Amino acid sequence: MFDDLSRYLSSASNQELVLTQLLQHIYLSLLPLVIGLALAVPLGWLAHRYRGVSGVVFGLSNAIYTIPSLALFVVIPVVLGTQILDSVNVVVALTIYTTALLVRPVCDALDAVPFHVVAAATAMGYRPLRRFVTVELPLSVPVLSAGVRVASVSNISLVSVGALIGTGGLGVLFTSGFQISYTAPIIVGIVLTLVLALVVDLVLVGLRRALTPWLRAGGTT
Amino acid sequence: MIEFQAVTKRFDDGTTAVDNLDMVVEAGTITVFVGPSGCGKTTSLRMVNRMIEPTSGTVLVDGEDIRKSNPALLRRRIGYVIQQAGLFPHRTVLDNVATVPLLSGWTRRKARARAAELLEIVGLDAAMGKRYPAQLSGGQQQRVGVARALAADPPVLLMDEPFSAVDPVVREGLQDELLRLQADLDKTIVFVTHDIDEAVRIGEKVAVFRKGGVLAQYAAPAELLSNPADDFVSSFVGKDRGYRGLSFLQADGIQLGGVSTMGLHGEHLSGERPSTVGGPDWTLVLDDDGRPRGWLPPGVVVQGEPAEEELRPGGSLYTEGTALRGALDAALSSPSGLGVVVDDDGRYTGVVTAQQVIDLIEERRKDAA
Amino acid sequence: MIEFQAVTKRFDDGTTAVDNLDMVVEAGTITVFVGPSGCGKTTSLRMVNRMIEPTSGTVLVDGEDIRKSNPALLRRRIGYVIQQAGLFPHRTVLDNVATVPLLSGWTRRKARARAAELLEIVGLDAAMGKRYPAQLSGGQQQRVGVARALAADPPVLLMDEPFSAVDPVVREGLQDELLRLQADLDKTIVFVTHDIDEAVRIGEKVAVFRKGGVLAQYAAPAELLSNPADDFVSSFVGKDRGYRGLSFLQADGIQLGGVSTMGLHGEHLSGERPSTVGGPDWTLVLDDDGRPRGWLPPGVVVQGEPAEEELRPGGSLYTEGTALRGALDAALSSPSGLGVVVDDDGRYTGVVTAQQVIDLIEERRKDAA
Amino acid sequence: MILQELFGWLGDPAHWQGPDGVPNRMLEHLGYTLLAVFGAAAIAIPLGLYVGHSGRGGVVLVGLSNAMRALPTLGLVTFLFLLAGGSEAGTIVGLIVLAVPPILAGTYAGVQDTDRGVVDAARGMGMTGWQRLWQVEVPNALPLLMGGLRNAALQVVATASVAAYVGLGGLGRLLLDGLRVIDYSKVLAGALFIALLAVLLDLVLAGLQRIIVPRGLRVAAAAVAGRPKARSSGRTES
Amino acid sequence: GGDPLKGGGGAAGGQIVIGSADFSESELLMHIYAGALTNAGVQVTTKPRVGSREVLVKALQDKSLAVVPEYSGNLLQYFDKQNPAAQPDEVMTALKQKVPSGLEVLDKSAAEDSDALVVSKDLAAQGVKSIADLGPKCSQYVLGAAGEWKDRWTAKIAQLYGCTFKEIKTTDAAGPVTVEALKSGQVQVANLFTTASAISANGFTALEDPKRLYPAQNILPLIRSEALDAKGKAALNKVSAALTTDKLVALNKRIEIDKETVADVAKEFVTQNKL
Ligand SMILES: Nc1ncnc2c1ncn2[C@@H]1O[C@H](COP(=O)(O)OP(=O)(O)OP(=O)(O)O)[C@@H](O)[C@H]1O
Ligand SMILES: Nc1ncnc2c1ncn2[C@@H]1O[C@H](COP(=O)(O)OP(=O)(O)OP(=O)(O)O)[C@@H](O)[C@H]1O
Ligand SMILES: [Mg+2]
Ligand SMILES: [Mg+2]
């Protein structure tokens, strides 16, 4: 098996293929994460702020979760009128999943911001938008980052399925290896997916640390 | 000045939190709201900075109907301190304090300079400014909360159970500091607590609320203790109110007695002022600075230094010039029956007996009648 | 009986929580551990039921080294009540209380019957048994916690700040109930609090700990207040300790005085016992049951019923047979200087003056010397 | 228009019979799902309970189960297919790997989140480790545990389509075969039935949750529902 | 690579995208086409494993792709289901007429890779050598084939050979699932490609097809007309001229059995044949 692997990896054209698909994979998994987060924040805020809305938002996000990813990948070009091979399809589909996955953590994270801190901000004369951006959002980072980490990992693993509809990404290694009963590319694909997830996770942890200097300072006295 | 005119607050679920409140909070005073849990103290307070809008009635701040002002701007003119301090955990102490000035459009440098100044005013080291709130003790956090509320120099300060989360010793320190601050800065302070001791200690006037948001009594603390408006108030101010009331009687006319004293090293110091009680004489032992260390019972004669075991610990000390309460407690707690009186530096100046305190009280009572 | 023999607990991080504790808790008493936060009260308590194992030293319960008994079995013989009550949210109140009997192998029916009985003992309605903990108020939850700890009728009860989460009024009620229970059931109770008032109120003996887990003083409450072992204890028991100490002085020899009284409808009731103070006479107004309603100042003459405005509210009432503290406060808080004395039913029986209390105290002090 | 085609497809009786028919595919799909979820539960619940109860290895476990989430199901399934020479077992293992992390996280969090005071009280009353686990920690962990189980079931239902890629049945057949010939009505029908299955399964599990979660916990949850809401990990009450 | 967001159809002058179906032979052909076009000075990018024919044609039409390798018979079937043409030239003529406007087929190569029904050694030993032998016994056997086989061929095989399978099991498009199924006996007949290495590697027998169930399957490029200029078309025609069935089988073996990299095998072929 290791012979297979080293032979597979020593071929220059394989290296190029793997690299291309890796880049495509990164693009397909991270762009939705960013857009999804941007969408989930206002939605999560709505759910946090208005209890009535939260039922609807959570119900919807659960419902989205029941749609199989493969189906979503296929149906989206029909709905959007995009080209069938357009990677936008995967981006849109994963954005939808990411948003659905993040709405609840955003809401929970905002709920976890101590009520009295928000009250204190209001009492000091903050207007709602500024209060949200400079007080509530920064304070929600610790809880929120946990949700984002789960979303990034699940995106990275989901993108592989896109290979079944020809959008590229590391999943191509699975289908092409599978077709010729060749495990080497499959192993390479799995390992790279794991490594990618790990690296992204480390980056996110680093980001959280950078955004929450006060947590590290906590409890020194 | 803050004025409540027929203010009522009914919440959506039907709870009446404040019922037809009419009340004037004088400018430049500390006014305390007390009452059992859920009696509408917080609600009343929050109607002043429009965190809660009254169902009916009007609130005036400095004669102006607050409904006419923009809530955010109004709030920047009114400092607000809450129980948990409500500090921003994600900002340094200095930036916490600088918040309102920055909101009001000050430059960052000016706001920070002001914040540093305020930290000093509330008795915090400048070095603390760089810390995060989680790195401070509870009492320090409360100070930061007060500093933050004072930052934009608001004429009005609302404080909602600001000291209830800290332990009794620290709490008393914070109360003292608030009184000192108030003497310096002359703000209009509304202070909420459910601790009657705290209320009578710091309030120039105290408003007692009862369940349902009804104002039961609004009076000066001494009046409240000596003359509770009804059974609710009298039960609320507690069964020790006679004793507590002594906090408001000054000990002006009291004649200090003397007692024989000796130094820690056995040297006879004085016995010139006659003991005011009869019976065998106790000897008060003082340290080299003249601070009381304990009593030697009558009949015990020591050569040289008195040993720790021979000394009977003293009672509480009464600081000259303070209220009668301390004098009575000093007498009652002293093994000799003689309350030890000290000056501001804690040096022995004389003794006082319970009898003297009672006589003085009786005299005052007669004068009043 | 619980015995600590040279018990030390050092945690893995190096904190010494309890330092060489030697102490005997008498069987059938309430012993209270007090001290500032972090002084090792909880640690000491939990070493009794082996929730924490000492680093060195021995703990004996009823003369037996607890290391020799199986922890689970030991714990079933020792009731344990913690601050948050720690009720099982997923079980009904009845099943919560029945837990230990069930663990000990009782039948379900018998355990439930016992639980129902206990709910009654701690003053809860039988109907509450079917509720879940979340459906009870804080005070009710505390009662359930106590009932649960009592369920297997353990000779020893450990209570760790059991009442600190409830408000002062409810808390006092719970304390009274605990005292009543103890009188009925005669358990050995170790009670942790950081409230000195609570400690002296319910403790037969009080152990004061200082930081670092050192026992500073272990004495009866009266002794603690009158004779604190050192500066730490004296500052911890507070500056009102002279007055508080009066809680432990009985008013046996006191001679009640009389005062002229009148009924609510203007009828003259009595004046036979001479007033014990000189000066113009106050009149005490009683209701139809003989309970005091207020004072009429000297010189005020009313025809028929006295109007509410004419009545001056009375001070606190002193119940005959209780400690001197109440008598002094009654006198100090009364507008007439005459403390109103009532019987157990709240009916007027006489008056007492501050002078009398002081005299009695002085007498006792001399007797003691 | 696309809806019309969909209804046309659904209306064709040929699509409802035989091994290719919807009922059979649905049963197959359900079969894979149940196998995978039960398999994962058999691994994850005991493990989560042990780690949560003993407090040992929590960090390692959480890290590991997060890493497991990153394993691409398609890669795993194809790899295992080649390794196992075309048996169904590989696919089921792939799906089990998918289902373990949410169940593990839910179970662990459930035990961990049990009020420390409650566990302490249980210990103080003289409960042994097992008694504490079964009488206190498990009942209190149930809401989060069931949340994790429901999450896992949802994911497996949605992902079991991958089985079709390695030649197995299930509703994924409709998706993949429809996709090969760009028959959108077939793909949509597949998606629809998978979603339907997911919803039904979730309803059943929600019902189960209502039955087995002690009433006192629901009462307690309702009591705090006013302000801070249920915790983040997993879904609790629907 | 290339910018994944950019539509890959490529107007003349820009980059064009060559796609392939989701099996390795198609991918190989894609790389060969790409190599030849690059050598002819056309800028190309490749998009392997796009999907089935249905997807490829759609992608050509919506300009995601410009060139794909195709098989003449199946392509004709796709555009005209009932077309009876079966012989290579017949198919070619019909195809040229039936290709929708905008698309275009270039010259066919001699290389053929037809679908074939394949049986295991056992069945072949029982004397089953052609579909005609199988015909009457079809109802005893299970066929393994891709999902779309049923729709395309059920009627025709029944009509030509009187063959109705007991069951048609969906496996995959002549990939490992189908091979495994035949190997393990889950199916007794499988639809594979004539050039597949798995046939000889496993000792399977490809059944003869005397009545031409499957039409001729010459390899040819299907392109979007405007995407290639004359030079480009000529380059592709050169590829078709160079390819033979034997060469293709050999190339496939290198990929499927020896696990050589598709792109490398293609590159070598392009170089060797000076394309
Ligand atoms: N948003 C609200 N909706 C409904 N009822 C409320 C709301 N806020 C407060 N209340 C009710 O109004 C009453 C007064 O509440 P408030 O907070 O003013 O009491 P408080 O005197 O400050 O009590 P505490 O000492 O416990 O802080 C209470 O019965 C409370 O339950
Ligand atoms: N598990 C532990 N590991 C390390 N240190 C501990 C542990 N438990 C308690 N301590 C430390 O031991 C000391 C005594 O703790 P303990 O809980 O007994 O205090 P306490 O008197 O009950 O305080 P409180 O009034 O706050 O409940 C404290 O300094 C505490 O921080
Ligand atoms: Mg309040
Ligand atoms: Mg403790």
From TrEMBL, chain A:
Location of this chain's protein in the cell = Cell membrane; Membrane
- Topology with respect to the bilayer: Multi-pass membrane protein
Q: What top-level branch of life does the organism fall under?
A: Bacteria
Domain ABC transmembrane type-1, residue spans: 22-204
Entry-linked Pfam families = BPD_transp_1 (PF00528)
What InterPro entries does this protein's entry cite?
ABC_transp_perm/SBD, MetI-like, MetI-like_sf
What UniProt keywords are attached to this protein's entry?
Membrane, Transmembrane, Transmembrane helix, Transport
> Which parts of the chain span the membrane according to its record?
26-46, 53-78, 84-103, 158-180, 186-207
Name the principal localization, coarsely classed. membrane
Gene3D superfamilies referenced in this protein's UniProt entry, alphabetically: MetI-like (1.10.3720.10)
Which CDD domains does its entry note? TM_PBP2
Of the GO CC terms on this record, one is: plasma membrane
Q: What biological-process terms (Gene Ontology) are attached?
A: glycine betaine transport; transmembrane transport
| UniProt family annotation | Belongs to the binding-protein-dependent transport system permease family.
Protein name, as recorded: Osmoprotectant transport system permease protein
Give the source species.
Allokutzneria albata (Kibdelosporangium albatum)
**Highest classification ranks of the organism:** Bacteria, Bacillati, Actinomycetota, Actinomycetes, Pseudonocardiales
From TrEMBL, chains B, C:
List, in alphabetical order, the Gene Ontology terms for molecular function in this entry: ABC-type quaternary ammonium compound transporting activity; ATP binding; ATP hydrolysis activity
Q: Which UniProt keywords apply?
A: ATP-binding, Nucleotide-binding, Transport
Instruction: Domain (ABC transporter): give its ranges.
Output: 2-237
Which InterPro entries does the entry link to?
AAA+_ATPase, ABC_transporter-like_ATP-bd, ABC_transporter-like_CS, CBS_dom_sf, P-loop_NTPase
E.C. number: 7.6.2.9
Q: Which domain of life is it from?
A: Bacteria
Concerning its family, UniProt says:
Belongs to the ABC transporter superfamily.
Q: Write the protein's name.
A: ABC-type quaternary amine transporter
UniProtKB/TrEMBL annotation, chain D:
Record GO cellular component, one term: plasma membrane
The transmembrane residues are 30-52, 59-83, 89-111, 152-175, 187-208
Q: How does it sit in the membrane?
A: Multi-pass membrane protein
Q: Where in the cell is it found?
A: Cell membrane; Membrane
**CDD domains in the cross-refs:** TM_PBP2
Where the record annotates domain ABC transmembrane type-1, the positions are: 30-205
Query: SUPFAM superfamilies from the entry?
Result: MetI-like
The Gene Ontology biological process terms listed for this entry are: glycine betaine transport; transmembrane transport
Which InterPro entries does the annotation name? Answer: ABC_transp_perm/SBD, MetI-like, MetI-like_sf
User: Mind listing the UniProt keywords for this protein, alphabetically?
Assistant: Membrane, Transmembrane, Transmembrane helix, Transport
* PROSITE patterns, per database record: ABC_TM1 (PS50928)
**Family matches, as Pfam families:** BPD_transp_1
Keyword check for Transport, yes or no: yes
Q: Which family does it belong to?
A: Belongs to the binding-protein-dependent transport system permease family.
- PANTHER family, A to Z: GLYCINE BETAINE/L-PROLINE TRANSPORT SYSTEM PERMEASE PROTEIN PROW, POSSIBLE OSMOPROTECTANT (GLYCINE BETAINE_CARNITINE_CHOLINE_L-PROLINE) TRANSPORT INTEGRAL MEMBRANE PROTEIN ABC TRANSPORTER PROZ
Q: What is this protein called?
A: Osmoprotectant transport system permease protein
